[in-house]
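Q: What would this chain look like folded?
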Amino acid sequence: MVLADGVVHLDPERAVFDAMLFGWERQQRTRFLEDATIRLALIRRFGEFTNSYPWQWESADAEDFITHLRAERDGTRPITVSTARGYELSITLFIQYVTDTRYQWPAVCRERFGSVPVFHEGNSRACRQTRSAAADL
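A: My prediction, written as structure tokens:
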């Protein structure tokens, strides 16, 4: 856990998200992965695109994000299919980290925000679950 106990943050949502990113980066580096594989900037960009945090992300958010990146806009070229798949994999790896109870993020999110990040293996997307439905985690 990379979030300090007893500290009151001015922006608790941002503090938890930043701590999640820090912890995920550390976990990925212990697997000898490099920046190009870890893609912290992509996860931040996804968060900015959704204007929400991992415990609020829904299945459609990842699909909308990739669809947005696949569309030609403002003179930029759309991302390729292989890039889109790599991005989806990175988002999935991040979601797997924040939903793994060994890292305590589901409990932290439930306690602080009333919802937890949930991973649906069937579609490799993030979605959310309210505190009442997540009480058995």
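Residues 121-137 have pLDDT under 50 and may be disordered.
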